Structure formats: structure tokens, C-alpha cells
Amino acid sequence: MDDETKNGQDNESNPPENKQALARVPVAKLPADQVNKPSAVDDAATAKAESAAKPILPTRQAKPQAAGADDLVETSMEMPRRVGLTVFILVFVVFGGWAAIAPLDGAAHAPGQVTVKTYKKAVQHLEGGLVGSILAQNGDVVEAGEALLEMDDTQPLAQLEIANSQLVALQAREARLLAERDELTSIDFPASLSGANATEEVASQTSIFGARKASREGSIEVLQQRIGQLESKLVGLAALKDSKIALAASFADELEDTRALLDEGFSDKARLRSVERNLASYQGEAADLSATIASTEVQIGETRLQILQLNREFQNEVVNELGEVQTRLKDAQERSTALQDIVSRTTVRAPVAGVINGMQVHTEGGVIGPGTVIAEIVPLTEELILEVQVSPLDIDRVYEGQEAMIRFSSFGNRTPTIFGSLLSLSADAI
């Protein structure tokens, strides 16, 4: 009984794996010499005991059925285990391979802000001045070229009027000088001087042209008259010279005859001396007339030279004045163009279509300094980008074209992450 109890305790402490409860069957102990010699009674008792134990103990025929049930349970439990083990191995292999190959340098965090790709457009006024009227406010959507502000144009218009008056005067003066240079009989004024604002200047230059022309022509006429007088004198001197020469020739013939008569004794020496004196006198007068004629010719040449010099001086004066006028005219044209540009800028217009932001002018009649930013316009059609500040410590981790994950801190955590790429890096720290 002690052995059976011990065996029973062993069986209770170590149940079979199929967790089925098995009954314990008591077995009588036989002497050792009778173990191998069963009797008929023993056989009957043994058979009776085996027959009584059949409902409880599993027989050799029932054991295969229990094993089959265990196999089914084991098969149904092994399948998930195998799948899980396979998945675990695959994940471990893939992740391990990726961890061994992929460079894990870490992420470079860079705060930034959203802006348009071409940046906000600043609206400025170059010259500044007094504010006339305000035509737009913050938040207004404007088109390109739409008026935002009207500046007071009193001073620019006055300066432009003065510049235009100077321009008209110089243009009329240039036309008059060109006519004088080319020795025209009238002035050919340009079409730009056909307006009412140029009438007075055109009349003034026409009068100056006529007066200068008359003065020059009068001076030339005086000189030409002098030349005429000298030429007339020259003709008279030439005729007188010819007569003196003729008389001298006559006295020369008479002198020869007188000498012949004196040789023959028909004349005296007094007559001879008288003829010689007359011949010498007429020859001297003819020589004086030749000198006078030469002097008169010189005077005529000098007078003609005076006419040429008068024309030359007049032309030099005209050319010099024309060069000065044309230089001033060019400056006046540029100044007029600049003032027209200033007047056109008295209306401040939007450079691009967009939304007005940061309007700085709110007082009509206020003063705006030169180059002051009046407002900013955020373009509507431009592409949006992010400007971020990368730490200098992370500069070796970023490069152009690198993929970036973007999160907006102003939104909730449920806002999805968007992806982008790095367009460019600044050459230096900003």
C-alpha cells in the first residue's frame, strides 16, 4: 500500500500531457518464484482484474484514438506559432539589413516660415512728398497697375511747366540758329513748336532772325558799296594813266624832232629843254597813277576780305551758340522727361496682382519720405515655399535636392506631415 500510495502520489504530481485523469488499478504482489508460473486461478484472477479495469484504463485499441486528438490540438496551435515566428524572423532580417546598410545620421531640425517664391513686393515712392488721397487699405485685393495712392502733384507739375518752357525756348532758338547757319531766308520750326505754348517763342526767334539778318546784310552792303566806289576810282585812274602815258609818248616824239631841228640849226636849246620837262612830267604822273591804281586794288581786296571775315565771324558765332544751345536742349529734354516721370509717379500703383499687407500710410496730407515703404503686396499667383534657418552644426547633413518632412506647428498634431525637397542653400550664415 505504501508503494501504491507513493506511486499514486507520483502519478498525481506528474499527470500525463493529454491532461486526462487515469484511474489507478491495485495489483497484488506475488512471490518471486511464482511470477513466471501462473496457475489457472491466477489466470482467472488476472483475467477478472483486467476485465474489471477495461472501463477505466485505456486499452491498446483506445490509445491511438487519444493520440489522434492530441495531434489535432497540436496542429491547430502550431500553425499560428509558425506564422508568428516566420513574421518575426522576416521583420528581424529586413530591419537588421536596413539598419546595417542605411546611414542613420539623424535629422536636421530647422524652424522657418511660409512665403511666396518671389517674396512679398514692397510698394515705395522714390521722391516722397505729400499724400493726396488713399485709394486702398490692408486686405484689399488689387490688380497689377491699380492705383493705391495719389500724391500731391503741385510742385512736380510746376517744375515740369518750367522745364517745358525752357525746352520750347531752346528748340525755337535752335531752329533760328540752324537757319542762320545754313543762310536760309526763313526759319523752319519743328512740329513740336506748333502749339499755343510755343507761339510767343516762335515769334520772338523770328524777329531776332530778321534783325540779325538785316544787320549782317547791311554791313555787307556797306562794304560792297565801298568796293564799288574803289572800282570806279580804279577805272578813272586807269583812264587818266592812259592819257598821261599818251601825252608822255607825244612829248617823246616831239623831243626827237626838236633835237633834229636843233642839229640843223632850226631850233634852240630852250625849246629842247621845255619838251624834255613836259615828257618827264607826264611820265611821272603816269607812274603816280599806276601806284594809285595799285593802292585802290589793294583797298578793294581788303574790303572784300572784310565781307568774308564778317560772314566768317557770324558763322562762328552761330555755330558756337548752336552747340551751346543743343547741349542745353539735351539737358532740358532729359530734365523734362525726368519730371514727366516724377509726375506720372504721383499715382502709386501696384507692381503685381495680390493682397495688400502692412499698409503704412493712413493720413491724407501726411508726408512720405523718399524711398519709404508704403505697403507690401503678397502675390496671389506665385508658388509658396518655406524659408528655414538651418543650424550651422547641421550644415553637413543637408544638401540641395534633399527630401524634407514638413510639419506646421500652428496646426494640431493631427495635421499630416507633407514632404518637399531642398531647393537651395545660402552661401553663408544669415
How would you describe what is shown here?
There is one protein chain. With 430 residues, this protein is α+β, with helices and mostly antiparallel strands. The chain has four domains: 23-57; 62-104; 112-152 and 349-421, RNA polymerase II/Efflux pump adaptor protein, barrel-sandwich hybrid domain (OB fold (Dihydrolipoamide Acetyltransferase, E2P)); 154-345, Helix Hairpins (Orthogonal Bundle), CATH 1.10.287. Helices cover 55% and strands 12% of the residues. Helix 4 (154-181) runs parallel beside helix 5. The longest helix has 76 residues, at 269-344.
Task: Describe what is shown at a glance.
With 430 residues, the chain is an alpha+beta fold. Helices cover 55% and strands 12% of the residues. It has helices at residues 2-13, 40-53, 63-101, 154-181, 199-264, 269-344, and strands at residues 112-116, 121-124, 129-134, 141-142, 147-151, 347-349, 354-357, 367-368, 373-379, 384-388, 403-406, 418-421.
Number of helices: 6
Residue-averaged pLDDT: 79
- Please name the CATH topology of the largest domain: Helix Hairpins
Care to count the β-strands?
12
Radius of gyration using CA atoms only: 68 Å
Write out the strand line-up for the largest beta sheet, numbering strands in chain order.
Answer: 2-9-7-4
Helix content: 40-55%
Note the run of SSEs as H and E.
HHHEEEEEHHHEEEEEEE
Residue stretches low in confidence (pLDDT < 50, at least 5 long) are 1-69
Shape: rod-shaped
Question: What's the main sheet like?
Answer: 4 strands, antiparallel
Would you state the CATH class of the largest domain? Mainly Alpha
The structural domain count equals: 4
Range of strand content: 5-15%
Protein name: Membrane fusion protein (MFP) family protein
Region (Disordered): 1-51
GO cellular component, one term: plasma membrane
Domain AprE-like beta-barrel: 384-430
